[in-house]
Design goal:
This protein is α/β, with parallel strands linked by helices and about 425 residues long. Helices cover about 35% and strands about 20% of the residues.
Length: about 425
């Protein structure tokens, strides 16, 4: 029997959910807070521009001249981004775009935190970045050059521009951060996995500050063709702004996007001691694997449910305390259905749910970090952004999906979901400061 609307079923036998305030994420010993945010997305460059864009609920998808002639020629790219202007001439020549976007977002996050890389102890500062693809634009460009002009035309910088770990390496160089330096690759959960990894580094004392997030620039002809061939992309090429429609009855796939989201994370006691402005707390993290299929989600959602239970338990939060969910919500038929079923089963119809991919597209390895940052902003401002293009909510999606306009309401506890190919699941719990 289904629980009454707004109510949540008790955990099944053997499943324990920690009582409120009882998790390692409770404000106090072990608590981790967000003191800085940086965003570079298709809605705009900077936190303010991105937040305004997602709250407006208008899709950033457009016809992309760089994809002309392909089966799918629409994307969500960052408008007006100039590597030379935003991260410097050297970066414009030596970094792949996924690194450039990430450097810009990280600089904004660090400036927002009030920390000064010129004076901090770099050995106590870690960098963890999620990335699913790496420098695919460089790979494609250099491969064409080799075929057209021969091996001598290939850049000597091909490898350092291509390999994913260089995004964290370049951030460390840019910020003078000599502590742990990691890149996580869990497909479209990569950015959320990076933030979960950062929590562990802070809680075990390895770092005092971690710059964590994700960056991706996968809007290239080969990548778009690959996603199109597997049926993951929307075919509404004649109406790009209406193509990404999470949880809508007529959804047919996602719109590929690019961008970066970065968070500065510190222990609450350290942030208080230096008088920092705290935006929110990252109170819990849960990860799991579906162990089901290389691309399709488990229709029963067992892995997602495990990650969600784990994140809430570690945060010391009961299911009926969740006010808001930033859903993975890709606009693909299978993903949205499986995620909605798990949320309905475990959280009921109480939380206000949104998917910001309707505006920003799917930024792949950066999505989890961008959406974690947006979840922080939602909690901070008491505002749930609308899900773009939700014209006819799928009747099987029995959730309170916010659509049309932002919803103002007090938010204390929110969840950000991220799932990836290979059955990778990552869930973050964000609570008010």
């Amino acid at each position: 029997m289904s629980p009454p609307p707004g109510k949540n079923p008790p955990p099944p036998p053997g499943e324990q959910v920690a009582p409120p305030g009882g998790g390692v994420g409770a404000f106090g010993v072990g608590a981790v807070v967000v003191t800085g945010l940086g965003l570079v997305t298709a809605a705009g460059i900077g936190v303010d521009a991105t937040w305004a864009g997602v709250c407006a609920g208008r899709s950033a998808a457009v016809t992309d001249p760089g994809l002309e002639g392909l089966p799918v020629d629409i994307s969500c790219t960052v408008p007006g981004f100039s590597a030379r202007a935003h991260v410097g001439r050297r970066s414009s020549l030596t970094h792949d775009r996924f690194i450039q976007l990430s450097v810009a977002a990280a600089r904004e996050a660090v400036a927002d935190s009030g920390l000064d890389p010129r004076t901090w102890d770099g050995a106590r500062v870690g960098v963890v970045v999620g990335c699913g693809l790496g420098g695919v634009a460089t790979w494609e460009t250099q491969h064409r050059r080799m075929l057209d002009e021969g091996p001598q035309a290939v850049s000597a910088l091909l490898i350092p521009m291509l390999v994913p770990n260089m995004v964290a390496g370049h951030l460390a160089m840019d910020l003078g951060a000599t502590g742990p330096n990691l890149v996580t690759a869990t497909a479209c959960a990569s950015g959320a996995t990076a933030i979960g990894t950062a929590l562990a580094l802070l809680r075990d004392g390895s770092c005092d500050v971690v710059v964590a997030g994700g960056g991706e620039a996968g809007v290239t002809p080969l990548m778009v063709t690959g996603f199109a061939q597997m049926g993951a992309l929307s075919r509404r090429t004649g109406e790009p702004a209406a193509a990404s429609r999470p949880f809508d009855r007529d959804r047919d796939g996602f719109v590929i996007g690019e961008g970066s989201g970065m968070l500065v994370l510190e222990r609450a006691a350290d942030a208080r001691a230096r008088g920092a402005t705290v935006r929110a707390r990252v109170a819990g993290y849960g990860a799991s694997a579906d162990a089901h299929h290389m691309t399709a989600p488990d229709p029963q959602g067992a892995g997602v449910l495990l990650a969600l239970r784990t994140a809430l338990a570690r945060a010391g939060v009961m299911p009926d305390e969740v006010d808001h969910v930033n859903a993975h919500g890709t606009s693909t038929p299978l993903n949205d259905a499986a995620e909605a079923a798990v949320l309905r089963k475990f959280l009921g119809t109480g939380p206000a749910v949104t998917s910001t991919k309707g505006v920003l597209g799917h930024t792949l390895g950066a999505a989890g970090a961008i959406e974690a940052a947006l979840t922080v902003l939602a909690v901070q401002h008491g505002t749930v952004p609308p899900t773009a293009n939700l014209c006819h909510q799928d009747p099987d999606v029995e959730l309170d999906i916010v659509a049309g306009a932002p919803r103002e309401r007090p938010l204390h506890t929110a969840v950000s979901n991220s799932f990836g190919f290979g059955g990778q699941n990552a869930v973050l719990v964000v609570t008010a400061a």
